[in-house]
Write a structure and sequence with these properties.
Blueprint (H helix, E strand, L loop, with lengths): L1 H13 L3 E5 L5 E4 L2 H6 L3 H4 L10 H16 L4 E9 L5 E12 L5 E10 L1 H22 L4 H15 L3 E9 L2 E8 L3 H7 L2 E2 L5 H9 L3 E3 L12 H7 L3 E8 L5 E9 L7 H44 L5 H15 L4 E6 L7 E9 L6 H4 L3 E2 L2 H12 L4 E3 L10 H5 L4 E7 L7 E7 L8 H34 L1 E7 L5 E3 L1 H7 L9 H7 L5 H14 L3 E8 L5 E12 L5 E10 L1 H23 L5 E4 L4 E5 L1 H7 L4 H4 L6
Antiparallel strand pairs: 1-2, 1-5, 3-4, 4-5, 6-7, 6-11, 7-8, 9-10, 10-11, 12-13, 12-17, 13-14, 15-16, 16-17, 18-19, 18-22, 20-21, 21-22, 23-24
Helix pairs in contact: 5-6, 5-10, 6-10, 10-11, 10-15, 11-15
């Protein structure tokens, strides 16, 4: 029996797991040397203690409840997972297996068992479950990125209590702190905005090199030459950083571990760096894709609203007002406006069109002109030179802000120059009055796109209005006539000239119905000839308007011909020449009246060339006085 016992203890001394024995009171009577590897205690330090002495109180209570039935009945137990406190204070996950020991008479004298270190396995299980939870958070889409990052950091630090960690985003070659960081806020503030480079600590260098950077001793490593004081101030000696990549290989940021003692990471810690950086990359890329999708939806919704407005009006004023209303809605602004003119040299400017939310009346509603000041001059100059919108917020803050900024309570502004054809530049702008809003990239992109569409539409409408005004002034209408269908187009002014409702179909049938009976056949024949032969059409003719008025019109048209010499359409203009015809008739009547007086006068009347006295015209009385038979004999004779 003793030999067997000796063999058992000899074997126990060689095993890589902790072999133990306890008596009937639960006190260790034997502990193999592996207890030192497992818990940091020598066998002598363990003997005399109970298993529960090595556990946290709440763990001891839990394990005691679970073992009570087995111990009471002196049954074996297997796979009992429990946490023991290492001598250095950390927790160690153990799997315990035990079987009762009986003496020669069959009475129980204690338990003998084996403890396995399952810390790595449990850590792997927790990390795997944590990773699954994090991926679920990412897939939900409703969880903020900061919450995902916090979950990553809490997961790591729950398994590695002596390690602190942080996640930094890379934006415009600068590292930006997220809310997820176990480092002190003061430390985060000092490194926020740090530009990456070849020797910028662990994080900045990892992002720059696009590879893992391991610094075992911050106080001596050249990468930390400019930042050594941070390690001393915030009590970390080693810093290991892993770049975060997206699926295309672009650096999105860094995941970093800070250790209180100098040294290199273990294999498990390197795997941890890789895994958590990969998770952070998935989260960031997913969120960027979602943000991009939302931004695109926002952009296209805005453009759809804009298209509806721009296609619904025909007047510059009407479209401008509707445009301001829709811009106000799209950007959730407090005020949208057009300023005119956008000229830095003007002494003052006005706001002819404006849309506001209740309580935010601006210069248009107040009906005032604003004297231009130094800031206004600078903003107009910069806006005229810019290729896109100018967005600003912090520049408008403070007690020294210009009068117009304080008067209209402007805290954030975005402006864009519109170059309207045939006019001075306009300035389109937005105000936010409740917050110093930072205009996003997609907002600026949408604002610029709206400006370009508005610029094109307003230019076209303005030119159309001016063309219509010119048509109305000259009383000229333009028209088209399709050669194949016979359908036509008449401008508004042509309908006014003819006295017809604009809803009346344009074409030869309508024209024929108002042509003067004496002119109808000739006019229609001329148009038909132009459509058939491709001749130019030119005629003066009369119409009788529905109100009974008779008018004279002058019509000119040219054919458009395809590459087979077939006439596609006639394009022409028609002018109201009624007043000219009346003037011509009045002039003729006046000339006839004068001719009668001239010829029948009882006194001599004549007209001469003043340069040489040659007789150009005379009446019958002068011819008689000069002895000529009639007036024609007198012509070209010299009076002097």
């Amino acid at each position: 029996m003793q030999r067997n016992e000796d063999r058992f203890f000899d074997l126990a001394e060689l095993l890589t797991d902790w072999i133990w024995e306890i008596d009937t009171q639960g006190v260790y009577t034997y502990a193999s040397p592996m207890v030192k590897e497992l818990l940091g205690y020598s066998p002598e330090e363990v003997i005399g203690k109970t298993p529960f002495d090595l556990m946290p109180p709440e763990e001891a209570e839990r394990v005691g409840r679970n073992l009570k039935a087995a111990i009471t009945e002196w049954r074996s137990f297997h796979g009992l997972e429990n946490k023991n406190r290492h001598k250095d204070g950390r927790l160690v996950d153990i799997e315990t297996n035990g079987t009762p020991i009986f003496d020669s008479s069959g009475d129980p004298i204690g338990y003998r068992g084996i403890n396995y270190d399952i810390t790595a396995r449990k850590r792997a299980e927790v990390l795997h479950a944590g990773q699954q939870h994090i991926l679920e958070l990412v897939s939900q889409g409703c969880t903020s990125l900061d919450k995902v990052f916090e979950a990553i950091i809490l997961l790591v630090e729950s398994q590695y209590p002596t390690i602190r960690s942080s996640i930094l985003r890379l934006e415009d070659n600068k590292l930006r702190c997220c809310s997820a960081s176990s480092m002190p806020a003061a430390y985060n503030t000092q490194i926020d905005g740090l530009e990456i480079g070849p020797s910028v600590g662990s994080c900045g260098t990892a992002a720059y090199r696009r590879e893992r950077v391991i610094v075992a001793d911050v106080s001596n490593d050249p990468l930390w030459a400019d930042y050594r004081q941070l390690g001393e101030e915030y009590e970390f000696s080693a810093c290991w950083s892993e770049p975060i990549f997206d699926s295309a290989g672009e650096v999105l940021g860094t995941y970093t571990l800070y250790h209180g003692e100098t040294g290199n990471p273990s294999g498990g810690e390197i795997q941890l760096l890789e895994t958590m950086a990969h998770l952070a990359g998935i989260a960031i890329e997913r969120r960027l894709l979602e943000e991009n999708q939302r931004a695109q939806e926002y952009y296209f919704r805005g453009m759809a609203k804009l298209s509806e407005v721009l296609s619904s009006g025909t007047k510059v004023g009407q479209v401008s007002r509707s445009l301001m209303e829709v811009i106000l809605s799209i950007f959730n602004a407090d005020r949208a406006w057009f300023l005119y003119p956008c000229d830095p040299k003007t002494p003052s400017y006005r706001v002819p069109v404006e849309a506001t939310r209740p309580g935010y009346a601006g210069a248009a509603l107040e009906g005032v002109e604003i004297p231009i000041d130094e800031l206004g001059t600078r903003l107009m100059t910069e806006a005229l030179a810019a290729a896109g919108p100018l967005a600003m917020a912090s520049e408008l803050e403070g007690a020294d802000a210009p009068d117009w900024v304080q008067r209209f309570r402007i805290r954030s502004q975005m402006i864009l120059v519109l170059r309207i054809s045939g006019d001075q530049p306009w300035l389109m702008g937005l105000h936010k009055c409740n917050e110093a809003h930072q205009w996003t990239e997609i907002e600026q992109k949408l604002f610029q796109a709206i400006g370009q569409r508005a610029e094109d539409t307003l230019s076209r409408l303005l030119l159309t209005e001016r063309f219509r005004e010119a048509e109305a002034y000259a009383q000229i209408g333009h028209w088209e006539l399709d050669a194949l269908s016979g359908r036509g187009y008449w401008s508004e002014e042509l309908y006014r000239i003819m006295g017809l409702d604009p809803k009346t179909p344009a074409g030869l049938e309508t024209l024929g119905s108002i042509l003067h009976p004496d002119d109808r056949d000739e006019v229609l024949a001329s148009i038909e000839k132009a459509l058939t032969l491709g001749n130019e059409h030119f005629m003066e003719y009369r119409i009788r308007r529905p109100d009974g008025e008779e008018r004279w019109l002058e019509c000119r048209a040219k054919p458009e011909i395809d590459n087979t010499d077939q006439v596609l359409r006639l394009v022409g203009s028609t002018q109201n020449i009624t007043e000219r015809k009346r003037s011509d008739r009045a002039l003729r009547e006046s000339e006839e009246k004068f001719r009668g007086i001239f010829n029948n006068a009882l006194v001599a009347m004549f007209r001469i060339e003043t340069s040489d006295g040659r007789l150009l015209e005379c009446n019958e009385r002068l011819a008689q006085m000069l002895g000529y038979k009639d007036q024609s004999d007198c012509l070209n004779h010299f009076i002097y």
